[in-house]
Specification:
This protein has 259 residues and is an alpha/beta fold. Helices cover 35% and strands 19% of the residues. It has helices at residues 7-19, 23-29, 36-49, 70-77, 104-111, 136-154, 171-178, 240-253, and strands at 52-57, 61-66, 85-91, 115-118, 159-169, 186-190, 204-209, 225-229. The chain has an eight-stranded mixed beta sheet, with helices on both faces. The longest helix is centred in the middle third of the chain and has 19 residues, at 136-154. It starts with 6 loop residues before the first helix and ends in a 6-residue tail after the last helix.
Length: 259
C-alpha cells in the first residue's frame, strides 16, 4: 500500500477536531480531515502488518514474530485451508505492544492450536500515547483496528471463521468490551472496568485484580463470566489463574462442529 503524504498532519488535525472542547473549534478543524480515509486505510494496514503472532508450527513448535517478518510469513503460508485454526485477536494496552516470546497464557493457547494475533496500534505513523485519557479519536482508532483485523481474517482460508475471538487488556480491554460489531464468537476483557458497557456479544469473560488502582473501584459486572484476582497487579496476563480462565472460556465456547 502506497504511503499517503503528510500522514501526521492529517491525523493530528483530525485529532484536534475529534477532541475539541468547543463546537466552534471542532468546526474549524474538521476540514483538515479531507482525505483522511485513505490515510486511515494505510494506518490500519500498518497495524496489521506489524501485528505480533503466536502460533504452533507442525515442525518448529510454538513460534512468535511480527506478521511482516519473513519467518512468520513462511510459517503462516504453510497453513492449509483444512487446518481450520481458531484465532484470538488481542488489543494491547495504552503504552504499546511489548512481547518477546509472548505471554505464557497465549503460548499455552498456541500449543493447543489457537493462533493469537495482536495488531500493533503504535505501528501507525501518528499514534499518541494517551493512558488514562480515552477520547473519540482513540475509540475510532481501536474500533477500526478490530474491524480491520476481522476483515483480514475473513480473507484467509486457514481461519476457522466460526471460531474467532476478541480480547484486550487495559485500554485494549475497554474497546474489546465495548465493540459492537459481528464476526466474533466471544470476547475476553482484562483489567478494564467496562465503562463503555458491553457490546452485542453474549459470551464475555472479564478478568481483573481486586486492588488494581487503574480500575478505580469499578469492574466489568456485565460479563457473563468473571475472575477476580486477589492482587493489585494491572497486568493480569502474568497469572496462571488468568491463563486457566482464558483456556477454559475458549474451550467452552469454541464450536466443535465448525468447518
Amino acid at each position: 500500500m502506497t504511503r499517503p503524504k503528510r500522514v501526521g498532519f492529517f491525523l493530528s488535525r483530525c485529532l484536534t477536531a475529534l477532541t475539541a472542547s468547543s463546537a466552534a473549534l471542532a468546526l474549524l478543524a474538521l476540514p483538515a480531515c479531507t482525505g483522511v480515509s485513505a490515510v486511515e486505510d494505510y494506518e490500519l494496514q500498518r497495524t496489521w502488518d506489524n501485528a505480533m503472532v503466536l502460533m504452533k508450527d507442525e515442525n518448529l513448535g510454538v513460534v512468535t514474530g511480527r506478521m511482516n517478518n519473513r519467518g512468520m510469513r513462511w510459517a503462516l503460508n504453510r497453513l492449509e485451508a483444512d487446518d481450520n485454526r481458531a484465532v484470538l485477536i488481542y488489543l494491547h494496552g495504552c503504552d504499546g505492544l511489548y512481547w518477546n516470546n509472548g505471554p505464557d497464557a497465549f503460548r499455552k493457547l498456541a500449543e493447543r492450536g489457537y493462533i493469537v494475533i495482536a495488531p500493533d496500534s503504535f505501528a501507525r505513523d501518528y499514534r499518541p500515547e494517551q493512558c488514562g485519557a480515552q477520547n473519540r479519536w482513540t475509540a475510532a482508532a481501536r474500533f477500526g483496528e478490530i474491524r480491520h483485523a476481522r476483515q483480514q481474517l475473513s480473507q484467509l482460508a486457514w481461519v476457522d471463521q466460526s471460531n474467532v475471538f476478541l480480547a484486550g487488556g487495559s485500554e485494549g480491554g475497554y474497546y474489546a468490551g465495548a465493540y459492537n460489531g459481528s464476526g466474533f464468537r466471544g470476547r475476553i476483557v482484562m483489567s478494564a472496568p467496562c465503562w463503555f458497557g458491553i457490546g452485542d456479544m453474549p459470551n464475555t469473560l472479564a478478568v481483573w485484580s481486586k486492588r488494581d488502582p487503574w480500575m478505580r473501584g469499578y469492574h466489568c459486572a456485565q460479563a457473563n463470566r468473571k475472575v477476580v484476582l486477589d492482587s493489585e497487579e494491572h497486568n493480569v496476563l502474568m497469572f496462571k489463574e488468568t491463563a486457566d480462565a482464558i483456556q477454559s472460556f475458549l474451550e467452552d465456547y469454541t464450536a466443535a462442529d465448525s468447518s
